[in-house]
Design goal:
This protein has about 400 residues and is α/β, with parallel strands linked by helices. Helix content is about 45%, strand content about 20%. The protein is built from 16 helices and 14 strands. An eight-stranded mixed β-barrel has the order 6-7-9-10-11-12-13-14, surrounded by five helices. The protein has a five-stranded parallel beta sheet with strand order 2-1-3-4-5, with helices on both faces. α3 links the parallel β3 and β4. α8 packs parallel to α9. The radius of gyration is 24 Å and the shape is elongated.
């Protein structure tokens, strides 16, 4: 019996039988149904490795089926098919991916047997195995006292994700990302403790912790280690919160840290999202202008995902524009995402801004970024966020 099994849901019997015949010729077992009730019964009893799903169904449409598959924790490799326009088809594929489903691809009807066979032979990318660590219980609330203790006792640590030059692959720098491993709760993701820091007045101590730790690591390895003489020396990026924009002393502390470690401010990039800059437009304009006057670089993160991107780009003194990963991750499958990426890169170039793309997960996306003239890239295809020693080993492995 074949280890690969394809379950087909399509309201057109002729198309369903055709898909089954192509799959069987490729060595898969295949079953076809036009009933969503029968489909879910087969899903449980037969446990297919692959699913071919038509979007347009009379009783329960394909998007609803995808939602149910996500709720059931389906791990099958899914091919989405339909005769709808490619924009709708691509959007359905993105929706499924964002639900955590494994998408082998989208097929617009009519499709060629070779296109279908290619997707059947290439299951969707498996999720990377999680780092063996205990997850924090979502039911138990983290307290401000616990976070303050974590900062004081160095339960927090900094991970570094590398950035490279798209054209040639040279190291461009690192983004510093804070992480927390609680001695009893285990790993606590940033989206749980950073909002707590912002709401309890701990965001400034947290930012100072990340800044001091990352500068100490970066400067000990990239000032005296043979990189300072490069024509384009590596940079360090640190994220700052909207709350930090109201901290009038932040600029002075940032300068003091640079002086302490002997780093030119131009090699330190502060990243913030456009929504952060919108919380208090006047305060953000004041502080960001001061940072630029002192020589620091500024990056507008997640560009293109908000309603005021263009306004923020025009009114604030950014030096870098960062293409949001939601576009980059879909570059291989979505023409619209590729158009958006190129537009953002072209916009940045016209304004004299460096462009960085995050979320690069395959070689094809990196090649497209190089083709359109994007300056820098980061993502799992290049390197995951790593602790300091691992990041240095990554550099050494690249030569």
């Amino acid at each position: 019996m074949s280890q690969n099994r394809l379950l087909i849901l399509d309201d057109d019997a002729m198309i369903g039988q055709t898909i089954r015949a192509i799959a069987e010729s490729a060595g898969l077992e295949a079953r076809f149904t036009s009933s969503h009730t029968e489909f879910f019964a087969e899903l449980e009893s037969w446990q297919p490795t692959h699913i071919a799903l038509d979007l347009i169904m009379p009783e329960m449409d394909g998007v609803q089926v995808l939602g149910q598959l996500a709720k059931r924790g389906c791990t099958s490799s899914i091919i989405v098919t339909s005769g709808v326009g490619h924009r709708v088809l691509d959007a359905a594929g993105r929706s499924a991916s964002e639900h955590g489903l494994r998408i082998a691809g989208v097929l617009s009807k009519p499709f060629s047997p070779s296109a279908l066979r290619s997707m059947l032979g290439t299951p969707g990318p498996a999720k990377a195995p999680a780092k063996p660590t205990r997850a924090a219980s979502p039911s138990s609330e983290i307290t401000a006292d616990e976070l303050a203790k974590a900062i004081d006792e160095s339960q927090l640590f900094v991970a570094y994700q590398p950035k490279i030059v798209c054209d040639g692959g040279a190291l461009a720098g690192f983004e510093a990302l804070v992480r927390w491993t609680h001695p009893e709760r285990g790993f606590i993701p940033p989206d749980r403790f950073i909002p707590l820091a912002e709401s309890t007045g701990l965001i400034d101590p947290l930012t100072d912790f990340v800044l001091e730790r990352s500068l100490a690591w970066f400067c000990s390895n990239f000032l005296a280690g043979g990189h300072a003489h490069d024509a384009h020396p590596a940079t360090l990026s640190v994220n700052i919160s909207a709350k930090t924009l109201a901290d009038h002393d932040f600029v002075d502390r940032a300068l003091q840290n640079c002086q302490k470690f002997g780093l030119a401010p131009s090699r330190l990039i502060f990243e913030l999202t456009e929504t952060s800059a919108m919380e208090d437009p006047v305060a953000s304009l004041d502080l960001l202008t001061r940072l630029r006057m002192k020589g620091f670089q500024l990056s507008i993160d997640d560009f293109g995902t908000g309603f005021s991107s263009m306004l923020q780009l025009a009114r604030l003194p950014f030096s870098e524009i960062k293409v949001d990963k939601s576009f980059v991750m879909n570059a291989a499958s979505s023409q619209e995402s590729r158009v958006v990426i190129k537009s953002i890169v072209d916009l940045g170039r016209s304004m004299g801004l460096r462009s960085t793309a995050e979320g690069v997960e395959d070689a094809g996306s990196l090649e497209y970024l190089r083709h359109v003239g994007c300056d820098l890239a980061q993502g799992y295809h290049i390197g995951r966020p790593m602790e300091g020693d691992a990041a240095l080993a990554w550099c050494q492995a690249r030569g």
